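Sequence, please.
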């Protein structure tokens, strides 16, 4: 099979580990590559990359391109952009993915701009399908369908890139599932020479010192989440959510509207512009259910909606709907759980 016209994923690398978002994209990439009958390729650039292939091959990677140089870690814009731009010119990939992280948001636009390829950011779904141009009537087979909320979340748009290559998309962490294809899957490692893909001036910026503060909020790892929206009504009412969360051993989350109102910190925001979660139990309090929020929690195992509006859109995906005011319902829930957990 040719090294050209395949699907490639840029893998982020931190503290000896490939980032979860990259492994999620490899999982999705393998599914789409199988659908197209092409190879799944991965590229990683950094230092101390010994045995990095053991982390990515189980996800079905056919070819791993490794560029190892101590100047490539931590990430800086210029050398990593040059590597991808020059490698993509050589490989001519059909599709390219990267995480919608601080790195991907910096790298994706630089690469797509240099290659005149276009880029769809923050996709919530990626599929392969056909497209007919409404103007010319021309049919395109097996395009990447890049799906994301648009126009403030009022619609879900499917974006296609009929002519330019690669078809590029970024995806947030947690949106796609991470699944190993085969623990014993074996691909090929191709070591690349950094001098061939970068210019000396790419290394004009060097990082002298770096401080990375880890988030103290663990929404992604919590099996129970109590989330509040604009319908909670006030910062004081969010204290009720915190009491319920304490009773259940849960984390508190929020919709964007509640964060924008200043009732809760941004690092607790769930949805298209926050984090994506898959808890066992999701209690949505006063959340109307905009597309962006739904995108971040729709895979929860059990969804309970507490809302004074019986017609709130979130009720259509909820397993249990409680119609009532937060101030009345939550104290009863707290009392009930306390009584029954003894």
């Amino acid at each position: 099979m040719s090294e050209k016209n395949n699907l490639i994923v840029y893998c982020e690398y931190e503290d000896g580990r490939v980032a979860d978002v990259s492994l999620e994209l490899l999982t999705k990439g393998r599914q789409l590559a199988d659908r197209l009958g092409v190879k799944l390729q991965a590229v990683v650039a950094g230092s101390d990359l010994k045995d990095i292939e053991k982390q990515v091959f189980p996800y079905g990677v056919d070819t791993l391109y490794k560029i190892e140089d101590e100047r490539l870690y931590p990430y800086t814009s210029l050398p990593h952009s040059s590597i991808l731009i020059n490698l993509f010119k050589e490989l001519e990939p059909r599709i390219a993915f990267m995480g919608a992280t601080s790195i991907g948001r910096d790298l994706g636009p630089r690469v797509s701009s240099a290659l005149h390829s276009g880029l769809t950011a923050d996709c919530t779904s990626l599929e392969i399908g056909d497209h007919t141009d409404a103007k010319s009537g021309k049919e395109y087979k097996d395009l990447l369908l890049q799906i994301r909320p648009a126009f403030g979340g009022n619609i879900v748009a499917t974006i296609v890139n009929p002519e330019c290559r690669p078809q590029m998309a970024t995806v947030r962490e947690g949106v796609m599932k991470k699944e190993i294809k085969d623990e014993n899957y074996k691909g090929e490692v191709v070591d690349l020479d950094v001098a061939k893909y970068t210019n000396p001036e790419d290394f004009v910026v060097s990082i002298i010192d770096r401080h990375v503060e880890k988030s103290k909020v663990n929404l992604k790892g919590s099996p129970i989440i109590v989330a509040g929206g604009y319908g909670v009504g006030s910062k004081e009412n969010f204290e009720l959510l915190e009491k319920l969360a304490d009773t259940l051993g849960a984390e508190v989350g929020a919709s964007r509207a509640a964060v924008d109102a200043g009732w809760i910190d941004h690092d607790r925001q769930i949805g298209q512009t926050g984090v994506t979660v898959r808890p066992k139990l999701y209690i949505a309090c006063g959340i109307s259910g905009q597309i962006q929020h739904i995108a971040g929690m729709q895979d929860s195992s059990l969804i309970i909606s507490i809302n004074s509006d019986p017609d709130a859109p979130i009720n259509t995906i909820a397993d249990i709907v409680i119609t009532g005011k937060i101030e009345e319902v939550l104290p009863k829930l707290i009392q009930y759980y306390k009584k029954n957990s003894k």
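The CA atoms of residues 289 and 313 lie 5 Å apart.
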